[in-house]
Description:
Elements: E1 6-9, H1 15-26, H2 45-57, H3 61-69, E2 73-78, E3 81-88, E4 96-101, H4 115-119, E5 128-133, H5 151-164, E6 170-174, H6 177-188, E7 193-198, H7 215-230, H8 233-240, H9 242-251, H10 253-267, H11 280-293, H12 296-306, E8 319-322, H13 333-339, E9 343-347, H14 356-359, H15 361-372
Parallel strand pairs: 4-5, 4-6, 6-7, 7-8, 8-9
Antiparallel strand pairs: 1-2, 2-3, 3-5
Helix pairs in contact: 1-2, 5-6, 8-12, 9-10, 9-12, 10-11
Amino acid sequence: MTETDIEPLHIAYSDQAIADLRERLRRTRWAGPAPVTDWSQGVPLAYLRELCGYWSDGYDFAAAQARLNAVPHFRTNLDGLGVHFIHVRSPHPAALPLVLTHGWPGSVVEFLGVIDALTDPADPRDAFDVVIPSLPGYGWSDTPAETGWGVARIARAWDELMGRLGYDRYGAQGGDWGAMVTTSLGRQRPDRVVGLHVNMPIVPFGQVPMTDLTASEQSALARAGEYATSGMGYSSQQSTRPQTLGYGLADSPAGQCAWILEKFREWTDCDGHPEKALTRDQMLDDISVYWFTGTATSSARLYWESFRDVDTGEVAVPSGVSVFPQELFRASRRWAEIRFTDLRWFGEPARGGHFAAFEQPAAFVEEVRGFFRHVR
C-alpha cells in the first residue's frame, strides 16, 4: 500500500485467537471478593465472572464480526501511519460529509447503531456521508512507533483523510478524545470544517463564573469533584505509566474486561447496572475490539501524549454542544459559550451518558441533525 492508497479491510477474529481467549478466560486466576457489596471498590467479582463466562461460552463471535462487517471498512496511510476507518456514503447526493471520532474506552463500535439513520434519513436534507476512523493505537489502526501522536496531530491526519476521500468541506463530531480531536480540527482547519458538534465539551473550568450558580451547574461541579476524588485512577495510570499497565491487560482478558466494564457502569446512564444502558453483547463487542487487536497499551498512550498540553483555546467555527445527563463533565450553556464563541446549538437530552451514540442512538442522531441544520 502506497502513501495515498485506500484499501478495503475485512474484520476477522481467527479461530485460533477465539480459542486462545476462551482458554485464558477459563484459566483466570480470580482476585478475591471485595469486602463491600457495591461497586465502590471496583467491578464485583460475581458479576465479572458471570460476564466473562458469557464471553467465553455464550457470546456469538461470528455474529459480532457480522455486525462489524455490515459496513465497509478501509485502511490508508496518514502521516506515515496506517489508519483504519469506516466509510459509508449516503444515497442522497447532497449529503454532508461528517467525520465521527470515538474516545477511550470506546471504538468505532459505538457508532454502528447510528450509521443508517445518519446516511439515509427520511428527509434527504439531513443526510450525511459518514467517516469513522479508529484513533491511532486503537482498533485496526497502527500503533505509533514514535512519540508525538497527540490530539493535534490526529486532527491533522483526519483532515488529510477527508481530503483524500474527496471532501473539501465537512463537519466533525465526537465525544471524549473524539471531542478533543473534533475541536482541534475546528481550530486548525476552520476553512474546511463547516461546523462541529461535541457531546463532551472541554471548557476552561478556571475561567467559568462561580457566582450565581444554577442548580444544574452546582450538580455538574459536584459530579466533576466526585470524579476527581474517586474516578481518576485509570487516567492517572494511563497518562503516566501506560506501558506498565499494559502488560497485565494484554495478558488477561478478564483484566481487560474489568478495566473497560467499570467505565460502562460508571459513565453510562444505567441506574447502577451497566446492562440497563448497554446489552452484554454491545459491551463485549467493544471489549473484544481491544482484546483481539491487542491495543490496551497503545490506546492508553493517548493519555500520556495528550494530557501534558490540553488545548482549551477558542473555537470560533459554528459549534453545537449536547450535554447528556450522566456525562462526566456537564457544561452549562454559559460555560460552553466561553470557549465555543459561535455556539448555535445547545441540547440537553433526557437520557444518556458518556457513550451517547452507543446508549441513546435516536437521541444522539437528533442532536447531530439539529445542529448541522444550522450550517449546511
